[in-house]
Specification:
The chain is α+β, with helices and mostly antiparallel strands. The protein has 1 helix and 3 strands. A hairpin with a 3-residue loop joins strand 1 and strand 2. The longest helix has 14 residues. The two termini are 24 Å apart.
Length: 64
C-alpha cells in the first residue's frame, strides 16, 4: 500500500485517467473527489462488496 500525505486541493494521479483530489478536510472526515472515465467503476468499498455479492447470487454461485 502506498501512503501519501496531501493537503486541501492537492491531488494524486493514478495511471493516465484517474485523479483523486482532497476536496475538504473536516474534523473527522476527509472528502475526496475522484475523476475517472465512465468505463471505470468507482464505489465505496462496502458498496463494491454488495455488488460482488449480488453478482454471485445472480450467477447461482455460493457466497464466500
Amino acid at each position: 500500500m502506498l501512503i501519501l500525505s496531501r493537503k486541501h486541493n492537492e491531488s494524486v494521479k493514478i495511471g493516465d485517467d484517474v485523479t483523486v483530489k482532497v476536496v475538504r478536510i473536516g474534523r473527522d472526515v476527509v472528502k475526496i473527489g475522484i475523476d475517472a472515465p465512465d468505463n471505470v467503476a468507482v464505489h465505496r468499498l462496502e458498496i463494491s462488496r454488495r455488488i460482488e455479492e449480488q453478482m454471485q447470487n445472480d450467477n447461482g454461485e455460493p457466497e464466500e
